[in-house]
Write a structure and sequence with these properties.
heterodimer, A: 466 residues, 0% strand, B: 299 residues, 5 strands, 48% helix
Chain lengths: 466, 299
């Protein structure tokens, strides 16, 4: 069920009405769990079995960590089983193909397992499962006064299944979500925040991302070879704006829905394309994933505490695995390694280049150049997202170099510019905050009108595939 | 009422005011929409134009090959109900579901084996209900702000694919329209590659079944009094002689044994990529269609 569908709006209205009714007050958590199960099962009910199995294992493991006699073993098992789920359902085909295994020799049952579709949201709910087990082990999740496995199971289900963030995040750490579980009152809803999140989220998704998606279909190769260099660059910039608007839009909608239900989800984006370094970019882009990888992977690997070489290696390992987390294809791993290598080189350069005080005009120019460099680096990396075949990426880049003599399409340039402009404005807003503040209401009204008048064809969110 | 709810209400009221002003402006100005940002937007606007009740005597259904025929070069009582990326079957589905039928349907046969796009047809009813769009022009797909902006920008552009017909009658306007050839060597190579790929394409395994199913729809329209005209667009001779094209031509002639069709002389028309007519050739093709025997379109 897509957030930008009428079916979902109807679903949410029913869920929220019952949720805040006096009859449901005692059963709000159970009602949200039920609604989330329905939401997940709406299109492919059988995938629910995998989700419930994963949730049950996580619940049992985290309960055993909190109240059992062998918490270390329970924590280890909880993490390993969650990772096993992810590996089996997401990477089985990639592993099978990569080792060159013979399809004929695995039998029909093995072939059937290979053909299993990727359960939607598995990358997110397994990470939530790991977070719950680890945070409980670390003592970051407050222990309930009564060690009731049923109450714990119910809360675990809500944490893993909470429908606003079930399919594509933001990834919420258990330490941040579990303490929020409780009875919510209608009068406590922060309407201003919810409205702002929902209007901006739907605007970014339906007006910007969905319209840019129509343009960026022309990026596919070999058809890309017939486009001019300028068109290819414009489309690449357009895709950079599209993937931001799509994912940031999704995150904002998820946060807005959660706000309406009385929960707070973490910020996932903070104007990532104004980052002046790659490290800065990853503090601004998909913040919940970066934070998760840092806390549960980078720091346990030693972080930057074991010398320079080990720090660079850790960065590359974490980013490579983070890339592979996005999709079961080597192009995603290469994308992660691209960023990992970039981060390592950046760190290396920073340690060998002394900081120089510059006059203010010069400092501004240096900032602009750094932003442009980071944006170019990140945008080139998105090619691996858009064109999962590595050969297509090379075709695209060689077409940029070769097709300089082709006439560019003025129409395409105009359309992409129209839709990229609001993304630029979003990034610039805090810089002109005082000027914009008094126009917030008209701007939100205009965004609402644009959602009605100028939405593109509904597309699934890009991150749903992960 | 909490202040945040009242501020949300004010924003909602302001959004409604913007919508009302926009719709009134569109109703008063009735801007001519000549450009769309992408194929999908064009397809949706085109289908909607038919669904809200365009009064057409003659309708052309087909794929991107037929989309090349610009509206302002067609007689006023003609409608181009062709969709890029889809075959004639999708347009035929819309016509056959309508209670009011045109006098004549011209059916592109080059892509008749493409299946009906049900997902696209399903999208046409929403998100704004069709009866509302029928009443309020400003809420139609055709009048999306981006389409108006692009159409406005087109007024300041010259040359290229935009060839205004002006007030000249059609056959006369077509005189002297000759397309230039691509001069860039890389571009020529790209066109050659695309043509080679099209020539090597295999016929769809279910082409015969697909065309048979479509023939039932077409014969249904004929039984309801619609004059059916089959049309094969001229393509590059290599593509016309390709095994898949020859096989499809045979399937079509078998499926419509009693029907003759129109085919235009490929030597007199130029394509951009072996398949799609170049801008001037497309306009001349319209002139020839109007001049074909049995055509009654206003000239």
């Amino acid at each position: 069920m897509l957030f930008n569908s009428f079916a979902f709006i109807l679903f949410f209205l029913v869920v929220a009405s019952v949720y805040y009714s006096s009859a449901c007050r005692r059963w709000q958590v159970e009602w949200l769990v039920l609604a989330s199960l329905f939401f997940y099962a709406y299109e492919q009910p059988w995938l629910l079995t995998i989700l419930i199995l994963s949730a049950t294992i996580t619940s049992v493991a985290s309960h055993a960590v909190a109240h059992g006699s062998r918490p270390r073993l329970a924590a280890t098992l909880g993490v390993v089983i969650n990772l096993g789920f992810l590996a089996f359902f997401k990477y089985n085909r990639l592993i099978f193909e990569s080792i060159g295994a013979d399809l004929e020799r695995i039998g029909s049952a093995g072939q059937a397992l290979l053909m299993l579709p990727l359960p939607i949201g598995i990358s997110f709910y397994t990470f939530h499962g790991i977070s719950l087990v680890v945070d409980t082990w670390r003592g970051k999740v407050p222990k309930p006064p009564s060690p009731s496995p049923i109450a714990h199971g119910r809360n675990t289900l809500l944490y893993l299944l909470f429908f606003p963030q079930l399919v594509a995040g933001p990834i919420v750490k258990a330490q941040d979500f579990m303490p929020q579980i409780g009875i919510k009152a209608f009068r406590d809803i922060d309407w201003d925040l919810a409205r702002h999140q929902l209007v901006l989220g739907f605007f970014l998704k339906m007006v910007i991302a969905d319209n840019l998606a129509q343009q960026t279909t022309y990026m596919s190769c070999p058809a890309c070879r017939s486009l001019s260099s300028i068109d290819l660059i414009v489309l690449l910039v357009g895709y950079s704006a599209q993937i931001f608007a799509d994912f940031c839009g999704y995150s904002l909608i998820a946060m807005g829905l959660a706000t309406l239900l009385g929960y707070r989800l973490p910020e996932n984006f903070n104007r990532p394309y104004i980052a002046q370094s790659l490290a800065d970019f990853w503090r601004r882009w998909h913040i919940s994933l970066s934070s998760f990888l840092r806390e549960y992977l980078y720091l346990p690997l030693g972080g930057n505490r074991r010398g320079a070489f080990r720090t660079y290696l850790n960065l590359i390992i974490v980013m490579g695995l983070g890339g592979l987390w996005h999709g079961a294809a080597w192009s995603y791993a290469i994308w992660g390694l691209w960023h990992g290598a970039g981060l390592a080189l950046e760190r290396l350069a920073a340690t060998h280049m002394p900081a120089v005080a510059l006059p203010s005009g010069m400092a501004l120019a240096v900032k602009a150049v750094r932003m442009a460099l980071v944006f170019t680096f990140v945008t080139l990396g998105w090619l691996l997202f858009k064109l999962p075949q590595f050969g297509d990426v090379l075709s695209y880049l060689s077409a940029i170099a070769a097709n300089t003599g082709f006439a560019p399409s003025g129409l395409r340039l105009l359309v992409v510019s129209v839709y990229v402009t609001p993304v630029i404005a979003y990034h610039a807003v805090p810089a002109v905050r005082q000027a914009v503040r008094s126009f917030t209401a008209p701007i939100e009204a205009a965004m609402l009108a644009a959602i009605i008048l100028n939405s593109g064809s509904a597309h699934a969110f890009i991150y749903f595939q992960f | 009422m909490p202040s945040s709810i009242s501020s949300s209400s004010r924003i909602l009221a302001a959004a409604v005011a913007i919508l009302v002003i926009y719709c009134l402006a569109v109703e008063v100005v009735r801007p001519a929409v000549t450009l769309f940002p992408d194929q999908d937007a064009y397809n949706r606007a085109r289908a909607e134009r038919y669904l809200v009740g365009h009064p057409a005597d003659t309708i052309l259904v087909g794929s991107s090959l037929s989309v090349r025929m610009p509206d302002d070069w067609m007689p006023e009582n003609w409608l181009n109900l062709s969709f890029g990326g889809k075959g004639a079957t999708t347009g035929l589905a819309l016509i056959s579901a309508s209670p009011v039928l045109p006098k004549r349907v011209i059916i592109e046969t080059n892509t008749l084996a493409l299946p009906r796009d049900d997902a696209f047809l399903g999208q046409l009813q929403g998100p704004i209900p069709l009866p509302v769009r029928r009443l309020v022009r400003g809420l139609r797909e055709e009048y999306r702000p981006i389409n108006l902006l692009l159409s406005l920008s087109a007024r300041f552009r010259t040359g290229g694919a935009l060839v205004p017909r002006g007030d000249r009658p059609l056959p006369e306007a077509c005189k002297g329209l000759i397309d230039g050839a691509a001069t860039d060597s890389v571009q020529q190579e790209v066109v050659r590659d695309r043509l080679a790929m099209a020539v090597q394409a295999q016929a769809a395994p279910d082409a015969a079944a697909q065309v048979r199913a479509t023939s039932e729809v077409i014969e249904g329209l004929a039984a309801r009094g619609v004059d059916i005209v089959l049309l094969e667009w001229p393509v590059h001779p290599d593509l016309a002689a390709a095994p898949a094209s020859v096989a499809l031509r045979k399937i079509v002639s078998d499926a419509f044994p009693g029907r003759s069709g129109i085919s235009l002389d490929p030597l007199r028309f130029q394509t951009e990529d072996g398949q799609h007519l170049a801008p001037f050739s497309a306009r001349r093709a319209i002139c020839e269609l109007i001049g074909a025997p049995g055509q009654t379109g206003r000239r």
